[in-house]
Amino acid sequence: MSSPLLSVEGLRVAARTRRRENLLIEDVSFDVREGEFLGIVGESGSGKSMTALSIMGLLPGPVVQATAGRVLLQGRDVLKMPDGDLRRLRGGAIGMIFQDPMTSLNPVQTIGRQIVEVVRLHEEISRPAAWERAVELLREVNIPAPEERAQAYPHQLSGGMRQRVMIAMAIACRPRLLIADEPTTALDVTIQAQILELLDRLRRERGMAVVLITHDLGVVSEYADRVLVMYSGRVVETAPVADLFAAPSHPYTRGLLNSVPPLSEEVEELRAIEGQPPTPGAWPAGCRFRPRCDESRPACARWDVRLVSVDPGHSAACLLLDDKENAHAP
Amino acid sequence: MTSYIARRLLAAVPVLLLVSLLAFLLMQIVPGDPAHAMAGSDASVEEINELRRGLGLDRPWHLRLAEWYLALLQGDLGHSYTLRADVTDLIFERIPITLSIAIYSMLIAVPFSIVLGVLAARFRGSALDLGIMGAALLGVSVPNFWIGIMAILFFSVQLGWLPAGGYVPPSESVIGWLQSMTMPALVLGTMQMGLLTRITRSEMLEMMHKDFVRTARAKGASELRVMMAHALRNAIIPIVTVIGLLFGMIVTGAVVVEQVFSVPGLGRLIVQAILTRDYPLIQGTLLFVASAFVFVNLIVDLSYAFFDPRIRQN
C-alpha cells in the first residue's frame, strides 16, 4: 500500500508558561490515507482541536508549541517547515473549517472577496478570473444565486450558508486534506446533516481526505471510515468505524457509546460517564481515565498504558486488554 | 441617510443651547465683569457704572440671555466689547489658523500612531513594544506646554530650524507658513499620538485573537496581510471613534499650544475673551467650538457606515 497522505507520529504539544509546562497532547500518532474520512472524537480538553491546529502549523505560539513528534504531510514534516512553505500549505494542500462560521469570516469583507483572497494567495490568477472561481465554488457548495451571494457580507447569510462559504474557501485550491473542527456544533440539527452530506460529497467528488473533529459519535458512525478516540491528550482507541461500534475495546469508548441514544431501540435511561475529564496539567498518573473508569484496578494507577492491537487496524490503550504486553514502567 | 443626518443635527440643538447657557451662567458667577476689565484698575465706581450701562450690563441677566438667544436665531453672535468687531467675523478669521494646526497635527499623529500601535501589537512583550508603549505614555502624560517650551529651546534656540512662535499666513509665504505651523502641530500631535498608539495596540491585540484572523492564517495569508487586511481593517472602527474624540480635544490643546507659540488662532481668542470678560465673544467662541465638536462626531458616526457593512444595513 502507498504511504499515507498524512502521518502524525508521537506528537506532543505543550503550553509553556514561565513557571511550568502543561502538556496538552502526548504521544499522539495516526495516519490519514488519501480520500479517507477520519473522525476524531473526544470531549473538550481531549486535545482534538490542538491536534488539528498542529497539522496546520497553526498552534497559538509562542505559548503553545509542538515539543516532540512529527507531522508528515506527503512525506514532509509540517512542524519543521519554513514559514513560506507553511503558508503555501495552508489553504493549499490543507483546507480547514472551524466551529463558528459567524466569527470565522471577516465581517467587513464580502464573501466573494474572501474566497478570491485564498485563490489569489495560491495561484497566479487575475481578479476577475478569481471572482469567477469564487462564484463557481459557491455553486459547488449549493449556495443559491451564487453571483449575487458573492457580493453579500457574512452577516447577511444564515449560519448554514456561512459554513458553506467557509467550506468553499477551504476547498478553493483543491486541497488533498480538509480538516473540519466541529463544523456543525454551532448549527441547527437540520443544517448539520446538510453540511456533513456536503463534506462527504466533496470528499467523494474531489478525492480529498477529511478529518472531522467532533464530540458527536452519531455523526462519526454515519460518515467516517475510521475513528480516533481521544481522552486527556492521548489516543485511547482507534478502529474502523464498524469495528468500533461493534466491539469498543476501551472502557471510555464504551462509556461514550452508552451515552448515545440508539435510534433503533427504546432505552430506559442513558448512562453518562461519571465525573469530569481532568484538566490538562492535572492528569492522574497511569491511565488518565482511571478515576472515572468502572473497571479500573490498582495496577491502572501504576502503569502507563500504550495502544495495543486488538484486531487488525483496531487498537486501544487499556491495561485490561493485555497486561504483559501493554504495561511498561512509567 | 438624509433623515438620519437631519435627526442628528436636530438632536444637537438642545446640546448647543445648553452649552451656551452654561457658558453664560458661568460668566455670571465668576467675579469681575467687562466694565472692570475695560475701565482699568484706577477707574472710579461712577465710570465703571457708566460703562456697564453703556454695555447694557445693568439689566437683569435673564433679559440679556433672552436677547442673546433671539439674536442667535437671526444668525447674529453679537459684537465683541474689546475687539470692536462682529464675533462671527472674529471667529471666521481665526478658524483657518487653528484648523490648519489641527489637520497638520492629525496628519502627523494618525499615520504614525497606527504604524506604532500595529508594531507594538505584533511584537507584543518585546523591547520594541515596551519602548513604543513607554513613549506613548510619556506623550499622554507630559503637559503640552512643557513639550512646547522644550521644543522651542531645541528647534529654535539650539538648532535655529524653526521660528519660536508667531504666524505667517500662507498668502505671504507657504514655506514660512509651514514652518510656523510645524512646532505647534508637533506639540499638539504628541498627546494624540500617545493616546492613539495605545488604542491601536489594544484594539489590534483584541482583533488578533478573533476567529477570522485565524481563518486568514489558515488560508495561507502572510503575517503582514493578516495584520493589515484583516486585523487592522476591523480595528479601524474603534480607532476612528477615538480620532473623532481627539479632534475635540485639539481645541483644548490649541488653547495651550497657541498661547505657547503665540499663534493667533481660535484658542488664543478664547483665552483673550475670558481674560477680558468679553461676554459676547466668550459665548460665541464656545458655541462655535461645541458645534464643531458635534459636527465632527456626526462625521465620525457617518463614517462607521463606510467602514462597517453591518452598520450600513441599518
Automatic annotation (TrEMBL), chain A:
Pfam entry (one): oligo_HPY
GO molecular function per UniProt: ATP binding; ATP hydrolysis activity
Cellular component terms (Gene Ontology): plasma membrane
Coiled-coil ranges from the UniProt annotation: none
Membrane topology: Peripheral membrane protein
Native organism: Nitratireductor pacificus pht-3B
Similarity comment: family membership: Belongs to the ABC transporter superfamily.
The entry's keywords: ATP-binding, Cell membrane, Membrane, Nucleotide-binding, Transport
SUPFAM superfamilies: P-loop containing nucleoside triphosphate hydrolases
GO biological process: peptide transport; transmembrane transport
Gene3D superfamilies (alphabetical): P-loop containing nucleotide triphosphate hydrolases
Name of the protein described by the UniProt record: Oligopeptide ABC transporter ATP-binding protein
Record domain ABC transporter: where: 6-257
Protein's cellular compartments: Cell inner membrane
TrEMBL record, chain B:
Localization annotation: Cell membrane
Domain ABC transmembrane type-1 per the UniProt entry, residue ranges: 95-304
InterPro entries per UniProt: BPD_transp_1_N, MetI-like, MetI-like_sf
Gene Ontology cellular component annotations, sorted alphabetically: plasma membrane
CDD domains, alphabetized: TM_PBP2
This protein's UniProt keywords: Cell membrane, Membrane, Transmembrane, Transmembrane helix, Transport
Keyword field contains Amino-acid biosynthesis: no
One biological process term in Gene Ontology: transmembrane transport
Membrane-spanning segments: 101-123, 135-157, 177-200, 235-261, 281-307
Range of residues in the leader sequence: none
Bilayer topology: Multi-pass membrane protein
Domain of life: Bacteria
PROSITE patterns reported for this sequence: ABC_TM1
Record has Hydrolase as a keyword: no
PANTHER family per UniProt: DIPEPTIDE TRANSPORT SYSTEM PERMEASE PROTEIN DPPB-RELATED
Family assignment from sequence similarity: Belongs to the binding-protein-dependent transport system permease family.
Stated name of the protein: Peptide ABC transporter permease
UniProt source species: Nitratireductor pacificus pht-3B
